[in-house]
Amino acid sequence: MCIFCKIVNNEIPSNKVLENDDFIAFHDLHPKAPIHVLVIPKKHVDCFQDAGAEMMAGITTFIQEVTTLLGIDKTGYRVITNNGEDGGQEVYHLHFHIMGGAKLPFGHMIDEPHKNM
Ligand code: 5GP
Ligand code: ZN
């Protein structure tokens, strides 16, 4: 069983922000922004590439509820999902990073600008 499925099953603790029948939001263990929350579906899906439209519709509304609860719906935030090896995915259970609480820097996505970009 993957680490986020263990969080779903309460086998390992998490600092939960919001939960409903289908999704959970909890604080990232190693925050990279003043607010850094992860949103996951309770049903195991490896990554964004495997996510269906119905799940994505539900998770969109859930993320909007979470950002409102966190008080960053008006100030702004970033939603990120890392997909697969080149995307830098470390945990293979679909999750969205919600980051906010400060004006976030952007850039340094790759070390050198790619010649074909
Ligand atoms: P990824 O690189 O897969 O997009 O992000 C995985 C994220 O999960 C990382 O930001 C990491 O800090 C977080 N993380 C990994 N293990 C745990 C855990 O056991 N609990 C919590 N709350 N976050 C975790
Ligand atoms: Zn899982």
UniProtKB/TrEMBL annotation:
GO terms for molecular function: catalytic activity. Gene3D superfamilies: HIT-like (3.30.428.10). The active site is at H95. Residues 3-108 form the HIT domain. CDD domains: PKCI_related. InterPro entries: Histidine_triad_CS (IPR019808), Histidine_triad_HIT (IPR001310), HIT-like (IPR011146), HIT-like_sf (IPR036265). It holds the Pfam family HIT. A motif (Histidine triad motif) lies at residues 93-97. This is HIT family protein.
